[in-house]
């Protein structure tokens, strides 16, 4: 059955954002997908927002590609202005936009790599999530209920990537936690997801360049598909007591167990709790 939801997924040209957007499309959503990769891929990675929109259509939803550089607040505002004009509502906002250097460029101390990483992780990542919330929340409130999901990771607790990466991820968790009290009266739930390893081109490159980073945590065998989080979002939406979770940070693997969701091929991704412990803003399921 089509969900009838209207969703926005930022940073959906490829990888995790693309997978979540397609999964929401498979549930019947109209999904607005944003990113800079409009007519051709940016950087060294494949994928464009138009390809994602087409995949959403093929999955049974309606994909709408909106070119947006999330460093530009005016472009971010224009995304939500368009959603209002075309749909008159918004139900789900997934904050996934971020930028990151190739793994091959990561070795060395952070002060030796310049300031670009800060812009990529904090300005494109964390700040763009805040800006998207500022412009998207009025639509969620007007719809009568809403769900915001920030894509985070165990990088909020462990040093897995360049220094600004962890700052961005703990910021995503704190953003969800601190939005929750303001959103509670409006029936809008804000969560942060700690994804495990996700089967993306970037992860494959990471395994190639830094296999030691993935030793002892299950490797690719315990990884989740890019669309896994989208199926969890669909299950969360159907939870009649969703607001009890607002402000919390959750392992996607544990949400999946709670809601009875298995990944592609009947696979159950492992929880990284045994390796990294509990999120700071964890709430009981």
Automatic annotation (TrEMBL):
* Cited InterPro entries: NAD(P)-bd_dom_sf, SDR_fam
Q: Which residues form a coiled coil?
A: none
User: Which family is this protein grouped under?
Assistant: Belongs to the short-chain dehydrogenases/reductases (SDR) family.
Q: What is this protein called?
A: Short-chain dehydrogenase
- Report the domain of life of the source organism: Bacteria
Q: Which Pfam families match?
A: adh_short
SUPFAM superfamilies, sorted: NAD(P)-binding Rossmann-fold domains (SSF51735)
